[in-house]
Amino acid sequence: MALTVLQEVAPPFVPEGAHAMTIVIEYPPGDPGTPPHRHPGPAFGYVLEGEMVFELEGAPPRVVRAGEAFWEPGGDVIHYQDGNNRDDVPVRFTVTMLCEPGKPMVDLVSEDELRAKGWSRT
To answer: How much is the CA Rg of the chain, to the nearest whole Å?
Structure first.
């Protein structure tokens, strides 16, 4: 047996009554991904193929490549980017989210809030 720890984190909170949801997301080459958004709880992911641009509020953008893990705390933290970093191959990643009952798993952030925070996609 082989066991490899990809990441180990202590999420800042887990919503009361949370349920886990695991999804696979695939973006075609050059796709910018989901517009800036939030998740109601923490999310843990792993890039299966390609490269994803990953940017959370308070941190610089970074590239997460196939075989690498990522996570985000959820709650009020804005997830600015999750798009495909490459224009020649798709990106495919899996995410397990701890979702708060009765709330959508993705909450898009308004343009007004983005402007107020001084963020713009270049």
So the answer is: 15
- If phi over 0 gives left and psi between -120 and 50 gives alpha, with beta otherwise, what is residue 74? left
pTM of the model: 0.90
Dist. CA 15–CA 17, nearest whole Å: 6
For residues 59 and 41, give the distance between their C-alpha atoms in angstroms, rounded to a whole number.
18
What is the total residue count of the chain?
122
Distance CA 19, CA 57 (A): 24
Edge to edge, the sheet with strand 19-27 lists 19-27, 91-99, 43-49, 69-72
Q: In order along the chain (122 residues), what is the average pLDDT of each group of 10 residues?
A: 90 88 97 96 97 95 97 94 97 95 92 85 54
